[in-house]
Design goal:
The protein is of the alpha+beta class and 54 residues long. Helix content is 35%, strand content 30%. The protein starts with 10 loop residues before the first strand and ends with a helix.
């Protein structure tokens, strides 16, 4: 199967001690101690989500 690229719109909100990350269409969430970590964690969560549904 050829590789496909998808674009997500992630909502980042400050939280005590870090940031929440939410992809609202599929409902995937994650958290990171700083914005860079939140971005890395939501990317990993989305990757795991698609491994499960494929």
């Amino acid at each position: 199967m050829p590789e496909q690229r998808v674009t997500f719109h992630i909502l980042y909100t400050p939280d005590e001690g870090g940031y929440n990350a939410l992809e609202p269409v599929i409902g995937t969430t994650s958290w990171g101690g700083d914005l860079a970590e939140a971005k890395a964690m939501i990317a990993e969560a989305l990757e795991l989500y698609f491994v499960e549904v494929m």
